[in-house]
Amino acid sequence: MKGYILNDDQRLSYTEMELIKKGCTLYETLTWAKELDFVLLGFNGLNESLKGTSHGYYCHLDETFFEKLDPKTIIYTGKNNPVLNKLQEKYHFSLITLMKEEEIINKNAVLTAEGTISEIIQKRPYTLENSTTCVIGYGHCGKSIANKLSALQSAILVIEKDPNAIEAALKDGFEIISEDDLLKRPIDIIVNTAPHEAMQEDTVKNLDKSIYLFDISSFPYGYHHECASHLHDYILPGLPSQYGYKEAGKMIADFIYRRGTEC
Q1: Which residues contact 48 (CB under 8 A, 6 or more apart)?
Q2: CB proximity list for 49: less than 8 A, separation 6 or greater
Q3: Does residue 44 share a domain with residue 156?
Q4: N or C: which end of the chain has fewer CB within 10 A?
Q5: Which among 11, 52, 9 has a CA at the least distance from the CA of 30?
Q6: 72/164 Cα distance (integer angstroms)
Q7: SS3 call for 98
Q8: Hey, what long-range contacts does 99-105 have (CB within 8 A, 24 or more apart)?
């Protein structure tokens, strides 16, 4: 396999290493684009000017690159990228968003959970045992975080709106509560995984000041952090790029290699 990686994330350095170990040839430029089996356009993709960064340097493409792309070449990106989505609709090349792949999502959730727990242990000067944690959102990350914290003897409460996620949380043995309960129940830790409007401003302002908040969602985050100035409040996006990043890089390499050799 021959490929090119736009390295804009610590994880991708290890993706490069693992693919080379597997016998892949990685080019330093896109000069030989017609010969490539895959192009990984960074974890973040391209901006509106079709620019990305690799090892701290800008890489600038134009639409001609995508127009002339060999049909066998697979374009990868880590996160959903609207610019690449529009180009794919126009030029019909093969585009795979890694964070939409179930295999990657599940493994990423484990890395996120471990990173979250590491941050909780570092930031909070109390044991997890006999604590009470509320997890907001019971998707892949919320589920993994809740189960790992439960194994460490933290009592788990869950806030969730989706009926299927509620059913999954109840099946896993966790209690479902409402946002109003955050002001009524004794809670030590709140972990938010929901991408927006996880808690109303009035709720955040009135939380007990002893509570530790950890928001692992991406911008614009799950609640207004300026309302949490009286709390121990931590924003923790992109944890897999900080914890277990070598494992994350290997995970991406394994996926790309397997997809390439299956084609």
Answers
A1: 83
A2: 60
A3: no
A4: C
A5: 52
A6: 38
A7: helix
A8: 101/255, 103/255, 104/251, 104/252, 104/255, 105/140
**pLDDT computed for residue 127 by the predictor:** 97
- Parts of the chain with a pLDDT under 50: none
Identity at 253, one-letter amino acid code: A
Report d(CA 22, CA 193) in Å as an integer.
35
- Cα distances (angstroms) measured from residue 255 to each of 18, 97, 133: 11, 12, 34
- Output the pLDDT for position 56: 67
The answer on 91 and 127 residing in a single domain is no
Neighbours of 70 (CB within 10 A): 13
Q: Is residue 12 part of a domain?
A: yes
Task: Name the CA dihedral angle for 25, 29, 34, 35, rounded to a multiple of 10 degrees.
Answer: -10
Q: Are 81 and 45 in contact (CB under 8 A)?
A: yes
